[in-house]
Amino acid sequence: MGEREFADVLREAIQARGLGLGRIQERLRARGVSVSLATLSYWQSGRSRPERRDSLAAVGLLEEVLEVPAGTLSASIGPPRRRGRWLSTVPDRPGLATYWPRPGAVEEAVSEVDIRWDERLTRISQHDRVIVGPDRGERSYHSRQVLRAEADGPDRWVVIMHLDEHDRPLPEIRTLRHCRLGRTVRRPADGLLVAELLFDRPLRKGETVITEHELVNVAPYPPATNYERKFRLPVREFVLEVCFDPAELPAACAIVSQLDDAEELVRAVEVAAEVHGVVLNFGPGRYGLQWTWPE
Hints:
By secondary structure, this protein is an alpha+beta fold. It is 19% helix and 37% strand. Strands 4-7-2-1-9-12 form a six-stranded mixed β-sheet, with no helix packed on it. The chain has a four-stranded antiparallel β-sheet with strand order 8-13-10-11, with no helix packed on it. It has a three-stranded antiparallel β-sheet with strand order 3-6-5, covered by helices on one side. The longest helix is centred in the first third of the chain and has 15 residues.
């Protein structure tokens, strides 16, 4: 059987047992296993399936919670998916807005731009640099990326940016290298900016392109407490830098990461004027830095 069958079996078992996902999560936790509500939802919808060792162990306990015969769920999972998360041909890609706080608003904004080439561009390398001012405000974000075309024709990259503080002005987007601005969608009420970065020319299959762009905020600057990159498709290398004013350093910093069907991981890092994190062959999922300021 394949992943679709696992989703069907799980969904039928949940309906027969009459438990909500929150109750299921609580009962799994009582058995010593923590599974997020998002993961349970993805499993029953078919968006993802359990593959890691801890996820497979959870399935056995899930059978107990749902009171189905042992092996009912595990037998329907099927063989492991092909590995190599850096490949652009990853099966069961998450939706474009999966990791955003308001997926509906993101999907509506993205519908106004051309995203047809998104899955034909392999993320080779991405490097984000965030500048935080002495007032603890987000000044700018610089992004450099290396992309490879997996078919003839890709001619653009779509940027999605979300501000947590919706009462702040949206940033200005500036193209720096090998791209120019295409269609731009600004939704201040949702804190959303979506923009097309058009390449110098369409790429041929196997060609790579290096682009750089910058997002620059205007005063009053939004308060800076975190930065996160969402990866709908895997990236071979991601580098994140956050640069603080030496006279105004945070009290604590941590790297936060989460793969699509795993628990969130938080790892403390040393506070400095420049804090960075590096991850290889990462995604789908999200990766970022968060920090707290002295009182």
